[in-house]
C-alpha cells in the first residue's frame, strides 16, 4: 500500500481481555515504531524495531505489553489483561532508516470498559 | 535515556503574528530534530527537520533553529494563518536512534 496501515481502527474491549493491534508499514521501511497517545496528550514512545536488530522495548509500560515484527514487515502490539488506563490511540510509524521522516498510520483507538 | 521538554503547552496568537515553540533535549549524542504537526483527528506529519551540522533551516513561513551547546531548538512560524492551528510536536533522536517526542504545543490562531 501507499502508506502505513493499522487495524483495527477502533477496538472496544472489556477490562481483563487481551487485544492485538496490527501495523503494516510502508514497503522497504526498516524502522518501525509504536507510540501511545492518550486523549489530548503527547506521543509516548513504546517500542522501536530497526532491521534485524533486537527491538528497543524501553518504553513498554508494563509486562502486559509486548510486540513483535515478523519478517521485518508487519508488526503486532499485544496488550494482555487490559486495564482502563490502557485506553488510548496506538500509533504506528515507519521510516526508511534509523533517522528520517516518520510516516504515521491512522492509529488504533482502544477503549477499555 | 533521551528526554525532550517542550514549552509552552498552549499558545494563542493573533492571525498574522509570529509563534515560537521551544524544546530542550538531554542526550548530547542527538543529531536529528524533527517537528511534526497534528491537526485535530489526524495523524502527525513532518513539517520540517534539522540535523546537528546546521544551525538554522527555513521553509517558507517556518524556520527551526538549533543550539547544540545549550541543547535546545525552536520552531518559528511567521505570518500565522488559521490553518496553522494544530498541535505541534518537537522530537529528537537518541543515542539508540529512536525518536522521542516532546509533550506537544496546542497552537490557536485568533482571527
Give a verbal description of the structure.
The complex is a heterodimer of chains A (113) and B (111). Chain A is mostly beta strands and 113 residues long. Chain A has strands spanning 5-7, 10-13, 19-24, 31-37, 44-50, 65-69, 75-79, 88-95, 103-104, 108-112. Chain A is 0% helix and 46% strand. In chain A, the strands form 2 sheets. In chain A, strands 2, 4, 5, 8, 9 and 10 form a 6-stranded mixed β-sheet that branches. In chain A, strands 1-3-7-6 form a 4-stranded antiparallel β-sheet, with no helix packed on it. In chain A, strand 8 (88-95) and strand 9 form a beta hairpin. The mean pLDDT of chain A is 94. With 111 residues, chain B is mostly beta strands. Chain B is 0% helix and 57% strand. In chain B, strands 2, 4, 5, 9, 10 and 11 form a 6-stranded mixed β-sheet that branches. In chain B, a hairpin with a 2-residue loop joins strand 6 and strand 7. The N and C termini of chain B lie far apart (41 Å). At the A-B interface, strand 5 of A face strand 4, strand 5 and strand 10 of B.
| Number of extended strands of chain B | 11
Oligomer: heterodimer
Biggest sheet architecture of chain B: 6 strands, mixed
**Poorly predicted runs of 5 or more residues of chain A:** none
Distance between the termini of chain B: 41 Å
The helix tally of chain B amounts to 0
Apparent shape of chain B: globular
Characterize the main sheet of chain A. Answer: 6 strands, mixed
Shape of chain A: globular
- Count, helices of chain A: 0
Helix and strand composition category of chain B: mainly beta
Order of helices and strands of chain A: EEEEEEEEEE
> Which residues of chain B sit in consecutive blocks of at least 5 with pLDDT less than 50?
none
Amino acid at each position: 500500500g501507499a502508506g502505513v496501515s493499522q487495524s483495527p481502527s477502533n477496538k472496544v474491549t472489556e477490562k481483563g481481555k487481551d487485544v492485538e493491534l496490527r501495523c503494516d508499514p510502508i514497503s522497504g521501511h526498516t524502522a518501525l515504531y509504536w507510540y501511545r497517545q492518550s486523549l489530548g496528550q503527547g506521543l509516548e514512545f513504546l517500542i522501536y524495531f530497526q532491521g534485524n536488530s533486537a527491538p528497543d522495548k524501553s518504553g513498554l509500560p508494563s509486562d502486559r505489553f509486548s510486540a513483535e515484527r515478523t519478517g521485518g514487515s508487519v508488526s503486532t502490539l499485544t496488550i494482555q489483561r487490559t486495564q482502563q488506563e490502557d485506553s488510548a490511540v496506538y500509533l504506528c510509524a515507519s521510516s526508511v532508516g534509523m533517522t528520517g521522516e516518520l510516516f504515521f498510520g491512522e492509529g488504533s483507538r482502544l477503549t477499555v470498559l | 535515556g533521551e528526554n525532550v521538554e517542550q514549552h509552552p503547552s498552549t499558545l494563542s496568537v493573533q492571525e498574522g503574528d509570529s509563534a515560537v515553540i521551544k524544546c530542550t533535549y538531554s542526550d548530547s549524542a542527538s543529531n536529528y530534530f524533527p517537528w511534526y504537526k497534528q491537526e485535530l483527528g489526524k495523524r502527525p506529519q513532518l513539517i520540517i527537520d534539522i540535523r546537528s551540522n546546521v544551525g538554522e533551516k527555513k521553509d517558507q513561513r517556518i524556520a527551526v533553529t538549533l543550539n547544540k551547546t545549550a541543547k535546545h531548538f525552536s520552531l518559528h512560524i511567521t505570518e500565522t494563518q488559521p490553518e496553522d492551528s494544530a498541535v505541534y510536536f518537537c522530537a529528537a533522536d537518541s543515542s539508540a536512534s529512536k525518536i522521542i517526542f516532546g509533550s506537544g504545543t496546542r497552537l490557536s490562531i485568533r482571527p
